[in-house]
Amino acid sequence: MTQLTSNAAPLARLLLAFMFITSGLQKITGYAGTQQYMEAMGVPGALLPLAILTEVVGGIALLLGWQARIAAVLLAGFSIVSGLLFHLIPSFGMEGMAAQGETISFMKNMTIAGGMLMVVAMGPGKWSLDARAGRAPAAA
């Protein structure tokens, strides 16, 4: 692994994890509002604790590089599902800036899922708990 990839992997994990951890924590502090939003979008509010758990625990695992490939698969799936439910489907029937904003948010979710799948493919890198435990062989 070159110096660049050795240093890029933990930075990439930090940047990817940051969004999930902060988003999950914001859902805790704004629990009632988030639950109402979910229900308004046709998603049962009872799933909110699962969303929070996925974002916070998955984000921390990714950040630390602990079971990083599993965390990345889960967060990729979360990004795809939430993108479909909260951004793509609602954008149908919208016009103008609202539709454009939802489309951009959907594309961001798909891009994040792509980044997560790169973690799955390439591993968490040398500076991770997985590498320390011998679970993260360097990508070829």
Explained architecture:
The chain is an all-alpha fold and 140 residues long. The chain has six helices and no strands.
**Proportion of residues in extended strands:** under 5%
Rg calc:
16 Å
Helix content: over 70%
Report how far apart the termini are. 8 Å
> How many β-strands, per DSSP?
0
Low-confidence stretches: none
**Kindly state the mean pLDDT as a whole number?**
91
Number of helices: 6
Largest sheet: none
Structural class comes to mainly alpha
User: N-to-C SSE series?
Assistant: HHHHHH
Please state the overall shape, judged from the principal axes of the Cα atoms: globular
Topology:
Layout: H1 3-29, H2 31-40, H3 48-64, H4 68-91, H5 96-122, H6 129-132
Task: Summarize this structure as a short list of keywords or feature phrases.
6 helices, mainly alpha, 140 residues
What can be said about this structure in brief?
By secondary structure, this protein is mostly helical.
